[in-house]
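pls ignore typos typing on phone
guanine + seq
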Amino acid sequence: MIISGKELSSKLKTDMRDEVSTFTEKYGRVPHLVVILVGDDPASVSYVTGKAKASEFVGIRNTTIRKPETISEDELLELIRRLNADDSVDGILVQLPLPEHISEAKVIETIDKSKDVDGFHPLNVAALWQKQPCTLPCTPKGIIKMLKAAGVEIKGKRAVVIGRSNIVGLPVAKLLLDENATVTIAHSRTADLPAVTREADILVVAIGKPRFVTADMVSEGAAVIDVGVNRDPETGKLCGDVDFADIEPKASVITPVPGGVGPMTISCLMENTIECFLRKTASR
Ligand code: GUN
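k done
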């Protein structure tokens, strides 16, 4: 079974649109998400456009601020501080990656924790690992929603995550652990990786290498979640980290690229923006 992130995301966004349509009457305004894009990397431009389109659909106010590649770190941090202080802004997202002269760590920690819709702020990350209330990072949150929607039992299962990034690998491993899976975090240097991944009931791949996971690495009936977004070196088309054609017949469920995890990341961003808005308006 192919899990359509696109379909599930569409359903979630429709439900959120209904919820947001009541906000003006209840709270006097709708949530406001500000997205900052530095430079003009085509992939980042496309992600940011997707976020603006989803906001429009859900009824969230979206401001996309584009800055040139040459913006200084100080200027960017100052912009973030202004948005932190702006009461009309509920969520702030700075699209990553950033140019080398700007510290991503500084940018992330400058965003006010209460407006950190990505869930990347160190205080949000700490809260996640300490089982405190927090904003969950969008991609890991979307992956858990997809597994649940597909009826995949997580509790008691063996999950293997390939990749250990702050954005996906580490937090998705933590969320799977919280769902009572037994989790192994593997990476490109894991010795005999196929032997490790063949043990997985649930395999999450976030390594950023086209067709890295081949059929011999997947056991019959595994649930396979492909977080990769790559260009196929032969065709130039978008492809995942998983050799989809070879693995799809073996997997019980599998996510396609495009149309799998990507759309879920965006709908979870909408959800996080609404959560930040409600936390603020409810605390008044
Ligand atoms: N670049 C790739 N994925 C993400 C994401 O989830 N958030 C941000 N801010 N940048 C990204």
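The two ends are 46 Å apart (CA to CA). The pocket of guanine is lined by residues 93-96, 118, 138-139, 167, 265 (CB under 6 Å). more later
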